[in-house]
Known about the structure:
Shape of chain B: globular
CATH topology of the largest domain in chain A: MetI-like fold
Number of domains of chain B: 1
Structural class of chain A: mainly alpha
Radius of gyration of chain B: 24 Å
Structural class of chain B: mainly alpha
Largest interface: A-B, 90 and 92 residues
Oligomer: heterodimer
Distance between the termini of chain B: 57 Å
CATH class of the largest domain in chain A: Mainly Alpha
Amino acid sequence: xxxxxxxxxxxxxxxxxxxxxxxxPYLWMLSASFKDTDxxxxxxxxxxxxxFNFDAYRDIAVMSGIPLSTYIWNSVWITFASTVFTLLTTxxxxxxxxRAPNLPGFGLLxxxxxxxxxxxxMLLVLPVYLVMFQLGLLGTMTGIILFLSVGPIQFFLFxxxxxxxxxxxxxxxxxxxxxxxxxxxRIVAPMARxxxxxxxxxxxxxxxxxxxxxxxxxxSTDTYTLxxxxxxxxxxxxxxxxxxxxxxxxxxxxxxVIYLMTQKYxxxxxxxxAVKG
Amino acid sequence: xxxxxxxxxSTVFYLFAAPFALLTIVMGLWPIAxxxxxxxxxxxxxxxPDPVYVxxxxxxxxxxxxxxxxxxxxxxxxxxxxxxxxxxxxLFYAMFLSSSVLSRGAWLFKLCCFLPVVTPDVAGFIVWKxxxxxxxxxxxxxxxxxxxxxxxxxxxxxxxxxxxxxxxMWYHVGFYIVIFLANFAMLDKSLDEAAMMDNAGFWxxxxxxxxxxxxxxxxxxxxxALIQFLKTFTVVVVITKGGPGTTTNFISYYxxxxxxxxxxxxxxxxxxxxxxxxxxxxxxxYWYSQRRDWR
Lengths: 277, 295
């Protein structure tokens, strides 16, 4: 369909303006992290600084007596470990419930999980403090990783995938007297590779962004991740604006890069997770 | 050796599900049960080995607490406005992005609007907080540049709610847009053409042809947005801390503050009330959408 040129120009202008609304905060954050105080006050809208100033990044090299590298390492390790753990627990859990939905207890488990993800997350975190206390996991990485492994949409993504496998495929294998291990490893696992990739990506993005459970379970800054460090830097007195923007940039950059590289999987995965849940 | 040991079929599946079940119980159901239990105990004894049970008194207390009642009203009002605003904008923007006017480049616009959804919320909201700042901020500088007066941002009672509505929209709306886009891609084109033949106007066509077909996306977005905005929390912690005054003191934040001040009984009672509201709304909407689908 062809439309007149003025309409097309108008449409592209509108879409560009809306897109700038979404992207502007990133550019502003990045540029502020390189600016000196003078140019922030005199030209807050200038996105390309006249001189690139790396002081802010030097300022945040040590925060609350902890080197930046520790926060980065905590973020990477917590994200990685909880992602692997989420994949294993929800993947096998969804598979078991899909293959044997009528086993006693499985229906209840599914309902229980639904209740958990409906509970207001930040209000779930508060009693988790009590649970961690009773388990002796308060202030430990293990406690944080275990709690982050209760993912909201991962189970549904797996469940939806398993239901899409034609039942003939598994029935045929059962006719051949294949063992359950064989069915899982030889038949289901190869088919599941794309869904595992998608779930892994989404989980990495979600867990990288987590802050509240980490703040609540932590007993000291030793177990803080980048977002938690950012929040505590932001609430300190004697504000270091450029430092905050530098740390926000470091917190955001990895997910932006991952998202831009894998956007199709991320968006489609999020949609199908939402549609099912 | 293990291979000789033949496991029954159901044992295998129980083993597969065991870690998932354990995690769901220990990190989910147990804390929820603990929270509900605590809501019936006296705050000062809540954490002691034998807490004193006080029946419904925490619930009676919060419903007589003017701050809680105001907080509940603010939360409901904010949720209603945010849901309508986000879903309306998302619907029309998705319709615009999927129209034939933007034949090329629509994917880039979609990419931009979804970017905040995957961004760590703390980082995004901190940037917004500073963009609203009257000294460093970009927003007033921008308004002044085009000759408009200053925007009060988060420090003024009149504008604080609007300021966080905008910041939250920036963060969430991309998700709703993308859900609508997926639905638009599945629309029946022949109905569109039929409406064109009948010379139906834009609004008539929208109302009679497009909207009914968008019911799946509207339902999903409605459920998600309701839950999302009823729980509004991070933006308040990062940007307003409930203020100025109690303008943005939403239930989640108020409950968290109560918990922080060791008011465990009332804090968990608030959590339980919010949970009940979310459950009723979400399952009501879900039931409603299912029932409509069967007909």
